[in-house]
Amino acid sequence: MTTPETTTDERFLRNASLIDQEAINRQPVAVVGVGAIGSHLAEMLAKLGVMSFTLIDPDEVDTINLSTQGFAENQTGQLKVEAVEDRLKQINPAVSVQHGAVHYHCGLIPPRAAVFACVDSMPVRRQIFRDFCEHDWAVFFDGRMAAESLRVFCIDRSPEAAQTYRASLFPSHEAYREGCTARATIYCAAMAAAILCAQYKRWAMGQLPDHHIHFDLFAMDCYR
Predict the structure, then answer these.
(1) Which stretches of the chain are DSSP H helices?
(2) Per-residue confidence of the chain (224 residues) as pLDDT tens digits?
(3) What's the rounded Cα separation, in Å, for the pair 129 and 87?
(4) What does R_g of the chain's alpha carbons equal in angstroms?
(5) Element (H, E) at 154
(6) What pLDDT score was predicted for residue 17?
(7) Which helix (H) or strand (E) holds 139?
(8) pTM for this prediction
(9) Neighbours of 5 (CB within 10 A)
(10) What is the DSSP string of 80-123?
(11) For a tag on the chain, would you pick the N or C end, based on fewer CB atoms within 10 A?
(12) How far apart (Å, rounded) are the C-alpha atoms in residues 219 and 173?
């Protein structure tokens, strides 16, 4: 008969030679924005083995979210943070989830957290980055997407990473304005989440993640 302990161990058996579970869980994880990228990212991190989550997003699930975000139709009208928490608990009932159905502020982030910005606002990105520079957070990741293009940043405490990221924080009025029916695709959102997840694994295990990756899915070009 399989015991609960055996089941828990077997959960990660297929990637045991690739993933150091102790390294993955040295710090809590905070996901700011659980929409197109963040909803998929949280699920991937839970399946990677992350056990402590903070989720931040003020929005409810809308019908327009269903084609690109990690929600089901019966979750329409539910707070996104609660819907994602339900999914994480289905994946692993042992995970710890704190959430805030509010706009971001730094007081919601636990000490030494790995922080993921999955927001669609450049001012909020700038604020999270400023807070990262002023707090003891372990590492900061940023995932962005527009139509079929994505960018992923990993900002550790190195001057090079900070310089690369500061250069990406252009004013909001300079942002590319895609049409309302050409803003997102499920494959771009899922790929951005997957790259963020892989970058977090590399950082946690001391494998030197890239500070910036830009992928154009329309042309199938990758820039680093």
Answers:
(1) 4-10, 21-24, 38-48, 80-91, 122-134, 159-168, 186-204
(2) 333 443 456 888 888 888 899 999 999 999 999 999 999 999 999 999 999 999 999 999 999 999 999 999 999 999 999 999 999 999 999 999 999 999 999 999 999 999 999 999 999 999 999 999 999 999 999 999 988 999 999 999 999 999 999 999 977 555 555 555 456 899 999 999 999 999 999 999 999 899 999 999 988 899 88
(3) 28
(4) 17
(5) strand 149-155
(6) 82
(7) strand 139-146
(8) 0.91
(9) 8
(10) HHHHHHHHHHHH-TT-EEEEE-S---GGGSPTT-EEEE--S-HH
(11) N
(12) 26
For residue 177, what pLDDT is reported? Answer: 55
Place of tokens 């992923």: 152
* 151 in a structural domain: yes
Which residue's structure tokens are 């989440």?
A: 193
Does 8 fall in a domain?
no
- Here the CATH number for the domain that contains residue 104 is 3.40.50.720
Q: Burial-class residue 210 by CB neighbours within 10 Å (0-12, 13-18, 19+).
A: middle
User: Side-chain half-sphere of 58: how many Cα atoms within 13 Å?
Assistant: 5
Give the total number of structural domains in the chain.
1
CB 60 within 8 A of CB 145: no
Reported as half-sphere exposure (CB side, CA atoms, 13 A), residue 137 has a value of 25
With respect to residue 16, please indicate whether it lies within any of the assigned structural domains: no
Tracing tokens 């001391």 back to the chain, one arrives at 206
Q: Which residues of 53-65 are buried (b: 16+ CB within 10 A; e: fewer)?
A: bbbbbeebbeeeb
Q: How far is CA 69 from the centre of its chain?
A: 13
**What is residue 152's predicted lDDT score, i.e. its pLDDT?**
97
Domain that holds residue 94: 23-169+177-223
